[in-house]
Write a structure and sequence with these properties.
The protein is mostly helical and about 190 residues long. About 80% of the residues lie in helices and about 0% in strands.
Length: about 190
């Protein structure tokens, strides 16, 4: 077991930027208004289970379809790049389907908001570079942040305001863009070696 504060810190920041739970506060508030109540604990636990299971079996699924982790990480770098562009330029490239108000608030939050394609791709990309235990700690740290944000979303929106949320989104967009470039360059070299 090799615990590394640097790896845990970087993986936590990457996942925080990809999950973008602060930027999702308006979505969370809209869901709260539709459903009347959000099951924060259940949504957080389901998201954690999905992310951790994918961390362990995601690579096997890739092997089954004939793709290695480096190839997936390069593809993941492109996904992260586009998510970062969305955050920085405030445009929408990925469109989410609308769920009816009768749909439980757990699933739109657990999947696809927290454990969505971006975070699943990121987990496998991180696995190509970091130790498993460090990634698991980073996932759990992010799930804790998600839980706190879900519990306090209405209060956070009034404290940060639209401008505050927009600034946070842009800052994490730039960080995510830099991480996407690093992920691409380190894994593209592995493919040509």
């Amino acid at each position: 077991m090799e615990l590394s504060l640097k790896e845990i810190g970087t993986a936590t920041m990457v996942l925080f930027a990809v999950i973008d739970i602060i930027g999702s506060i308006p979505i969370v508030i809209a869901l709260r208004q539709k459903a009347g109540h959000i099951k924060s604990g259940r949504a957080s636990i389901i998201a954690a289970i999905v992310l951790i299971i994918f961390l362990f079996v995601g690579e096997e699924i890739l092997k089954l379809i004939g793709i290695n982790v480096n190839e997936f990480a390069v593809a993941g770098a492109f996904v992260l790049f586009f998510i970062a562009i969305e955050m920085i330029l405030n445009i929408t490239l990925f469109k989410e389907g609308e769920d009816g108000p009768d749909m439980s608030s757990v699933f739109p939050i657990a999947f696809p908001i927290v454990a969505g394609p971006g975070s699943l791709t990121t987990i496998l990309a991180l696995r190509a570079e970091y130790q498993l235990e460090n990634i698991i700690i980073a996932i759990l740290a992010n799930i804790l942040i998600v839980y706190v944000v879900l519990k306090t979303s209405a209060r956070l929106q009034s404290i940060l305001g639209k401008a505050g949320i927009a600034i946070i989104k842009k800052v994490f967009g730039v960080i995510l863009l830099a991480i996407a470039v690093k992920l691409f360059t380190s894994n593209i070299q592995e493919l040509f070696n």
